[in-house]
Records
---
Amino acid sequence: MQTSVVIRPVQAPARTQGPNGARHRVSQAYTQSSANRQKTIKRSRRSNNKAQELSLGKQYLRSLLDPEHCAGIKIPDMISFPSGTFQLTVDKLVPTLTGGDSVAIWLCPQIGDGGATASQFIVCNGNSAGALSNQSPQESGGTPTVRQLFSGYRPVSASIVASFIGPSLSDGGIILGALLPRNTQPPASYTAAQALPNNYSCPLRDGMMVLWRPEDNADMEFQGQVPIVSPPSIYVAATGIPSGVSYVKFRLVMNFEAIVSTDVANVVEATPSPIDLIGFTNALQYVNNTQMAMNLRQSLTNAAVGFAGNYLRNRMFSNLDRIAM
């Protein structure tokens, strides 16, 4: 018996897509995945850019609210250009004179010429009750060096912190702080200081901080050592202090952005300034609605300036991160 074997080709089941269709489906799925990744990347970049903008605006705002601990910040601007930064600090014990009971300091964040023509700060006291007519223009010790390194300046932020450091039996006086319009000179008496616009006063034992802020666009311009338009100033005065003692400590802080002189360009670092006009505007709107002279409410055992600064940061920055800018 013969057995015949017939071999027939086996046909694959019919496919609606076929091998090419399957590859097409895989390619389409990959394309969709790639497109989703690109969208995610774009959203992330937009989010990062927005976060950077918020960071620039909040950095400037933090400098305005806490100048001592926020050095190195530049003013957000419309264009970017190379500039440097520096901070000047002064610790000053101002004594009451014989027969006097009042002391004061006036601060204008400018470089100045070392004299009365463009004073950086003025120390005030007097020889009778309430007198502040003895006025001595001074500057920080680092200012002469700054003049050699930079050719143009604009203030970023500044502050005066006044702390009572005497015995509790002598802390019954009053302290006053004010933000003064440009070209306003320090008063010659505490009575005159009480007539300053928008002044704030509190018990001397509590201490005082006054924060500087720009008045208008003129404060955003780089100017020389003796500015054409002087910035606004800040002022703190205290009265009711025994005569012949140094019971009030003043800490002055000034932050500047500056244009580096060409002959020291390799010595001082200059980096591009930030661009963030919206953050700049929102920061100014915030400080314009903020009390710039305030009671530190410091305890007698913690009258050091460091405590005052820590208190202020905790108080002012508690809600800052939630500000929409």
---
Amino acid sequence: MARSAVLVLALLASAFAAEEVCAEGQCAEGAEEAALLQSTAAQKLAEVKAHSNDTAGVPCGSSADCTCGEDINPCYHNSECTVGKPNCNAGGSVQCMFCGPAGPRYDGKQPDRPACPNGYVTPSKCYWQP
């Protein structure tokens, strides 16, 4: 997570510098190549963020993992979750949704939950491997 934050800051700084060097589409001599490299770095950052499992402010990501308060129940980020919607509010975060089966150590009848739509994080933080 810390490495991602450092990468994000570095790429944002380079994107900001590219905007200053080539304001209004006019690049200073020799600055065009630097601006192109910085633009490419900004595009890479967008790709990394799109494939990242980190979702700001919530304990769950786009792929399921047991990060919502215990190592039994997988959960994932679902922006359509609302208070009171079944399986939402996993681990106390409204946009985290429980999915898939609970681990073998789960007491009682397996909960009725949807499948995890984006698969699981590997390696998982679940005590069992989904």
